[in-house]
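It would be a great kindness if you could assist me with a short task in structural biology. The matter concerns a single protein, recorded as an amino acid sequence and a row of backbone structure tokens. Could you please explain, in whatever detail you think fit, how the structure tokens follow from the sequence? Thank you for your consideration; the sequence and its tokens are set out here:
___
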Amino acid sequence: MNQELLNRLARTAADICQVQLYHLDCAARGRKAIVRVFIDKPGGVTVADCERVSRELSALLDVEDPIPTTYNLEVSSPGLERRLYVPEHYCGQIGREVEVKTTQASAEGRKKWLGVLEQADDSGFVIRSEEDGIVRFEYPAVESCRLRFKF
């Protein structure tokens, strides 16, 4: 599978539809692949946005054929409790509450932290936790980081 071409095609489809490509995930499931495209825009994503991107990207995939197997294409919003993937995502969410899961347990055996995202840069980010104070995480040590939405 040509991941670079797939990313370029997804970005092109998002640009044509005037939305932001938030994240692209492609996973093989036996002889079939699942291509998940997450889009975003100011004010939120609508079902119509997802449909437009899906149609546009499907047409581009038919022409370029970067996926050698059959596949399912899913286009959606990253959601309220979205996962943060790249430094730009972290920088855009400063001041928001996050849940961090690490790849390895701390000396105390913890793998999960809750706190407010205080700062982020190209190498990692800092949260302020009521329980732990200021905690810095390097991106390679993070399994996942998600926004926490309070109703």
In short: The beta strands are 20-29, 32-40, 70-76, 97-102, 112-120, 124-129, 133-138, 142-147.
